[in-house]
Design a protein that fits this description.
The protein has 412 residues and is mainly alpha-helical. It is built from 27 helices and no strands. The radius of gyration is 26 Å and the shape is elongated.
Length: 412
């Protein structure tokens, strides 16, 4: 009882008081709290008080390191397992997930967490307390931290029950930005591993993400993570159509057109670029005034390399049409492509996407004439001089050059 009250007192003192946290560390307070967990893990009251004492400490890097080194992750998971079936222990699991979130800012802590079976423990907690906003928020945040590395993505994504639990959190708490943001981030990071994309798609990630993005259509961070996830899920032709059929094109066009945040616009343009590889999607984007929306976003952020890169990539893919019936893009559009390439001479991806755009545009004679008149030869020559050792850029520069009237020798 004395130990429990001591932990409770520490929890109150530490909150917002850095000097008290330092004293707790100096006098071995962390070891004391962990010993309480070791000796009284079956006691709900003792576990709650100990967790409340550890939570503010775990936000301090030095204290977090001490917690890890003294076996804190193992003890926290042990307590959470012991009280898994007790529906009255929501506080233990909410605070426990919070401590693990703070500790998981460290890569070695993330590895220890997964090695000790933490993914399964927290996944079960999320499933059991599916209606609890705080637990869902912290649990999804924890999984997004674990998914920062390739190994973590493989382990979380390889556990179908956990994937479904994350998506279910997104669906069930769609109006709660505090849950939606970390769950979208977790899905985005998981989608970076190609082998996870089928699992995520079959579990309903595409529709859940898009519905959340519509619900929070003014929240820039949710839009960024949502677009990031959709880009990862749209890598195949079939999944690209699924994203489009679920409303992905409309969401991307709306975000690119109406957001002023360049980060949101860049991610929206990235999705348009990927979706436009599919000819059916390309037609839908063009009919939605996609070319003009892309160009206006690029004009609004001339110094932002990511907007320019993704914009050029989208514009290139929207100028394909299987090389048939390419329209005249207009002098201003072609000038924008060339000006972007001039403004970012060292950016490999901008040069590559710019060359692809010029190649596709040059299937129209009017576009070809405009490219030449606006200095296209000089732009391509500069690319050759600056990126002679970059095979992919040189390839696309050579293809673009080959579409123009041969005024000078084609770059090798």
């Amino acid at each position: 009882m004395v130990q429990m009250h001591t932990c409770a007192l520490l929890a109150v003192w530490e909150e917002g008081m850095d000097c008290v946290r330092e004293m707790v560390m100096d006098f071995g307070g962390i070891g004391l709290v962990l010993q309480v967990l070791q000796d009284h893990s079956e006691s709900v009251g003792a576990a709650e008080c100990a967790f409340r004492a550890l939570f503010p400490l775990s936000r301090c890097a030095a204290a977090a390191a001490t917690i890890r080194h003294e076996g804190g992750i193992r003890l926290i998971l042990k307590v959470m397992r012991r009280h898994m079936e007790d529906g009255a222990c929501a506080t233990i699991h909410e605070v426990g997930c919070g401590i693990l979130c703070n500790l998981s800012c460290n890569e070695s802590a993330r590895t220890e967490f997964t090695d000790l079976g933490g993914i399964e423990v927290v996944g079960s907690v999320l499933e059991m307390f599916s209606a609890h906003v705080g637990i869902q928020q912290r649990g999804c945040t924890l999984f997004s931290n674990v998914a920062l590395e390739e190994n973590g993505r493989a382990q979380v994504g390889g556990t179908m029950g956990v994937v479904r639990t994350i998506i279910e959190a997104l669906i069930q708490h769609q109006t709660e930005a505090a849950v939606v943001q970390p769950s979208c981030k977790a899905i985005y990071l998981l989608s970076l591993k190609k082998s996870n994309t089928e699992t995520l798609t079959s579990a309903g990630a595409v529709q859940a993400i898009l519905e959340a993005m519509v619900q929070h259509n003014t929240h820039p961070t949710i839009q960024v993570y949502g677009f990031g996830a959709l880009c990862g899920l749209a890598r195949s032709q079939d999944r690209a159509r699924k994203v489009a059929d679920s409303g992905g094109i409309a969401r991307a066009l709306a975000a690119v057109q109406h957001f002023v945040d360049p980060n949101v616009r860049a991610h929206g343009l990235g999705l348009l670029r990927i979706l436009a590889v599919n000819p059916v999607n390309e037609g839908e984007i063009v009919r939605g005034n996609g070319r003009q929306i892309v160009l206006e976003a690029m004009l609004a952020h001339p110094e932002d390399a990511r907007v320019q890169d993704q914009g050029l990539g989208a514009f290139a893919n929207l100028s394909c049409k299987d090389n048939h019936d390419i329209p005249f893009a207009g002098m201003s559009s072609i000038a924008l492509v060339l000006d972007t390439m001039r403004a970012h001479p060292d950016d490999v991806e901008i040069q590559e996407h710019g060359c692809q755009a010029l190649t596709n545009l040059a299937f129209n004679d009017e576009n070809t004439e405009a490219i030449v008149d606006l200095g296209g030869y000089d732009v391509l020559q500069t690319i050759v001089e600056c990126h002679a050792h970059h095979q992919q850029v040189m390839h696309h520069a050579g293809v673009a050059y080959g579409k123009l009237p041969q005024r000078v020798e084609k770059p090798e």
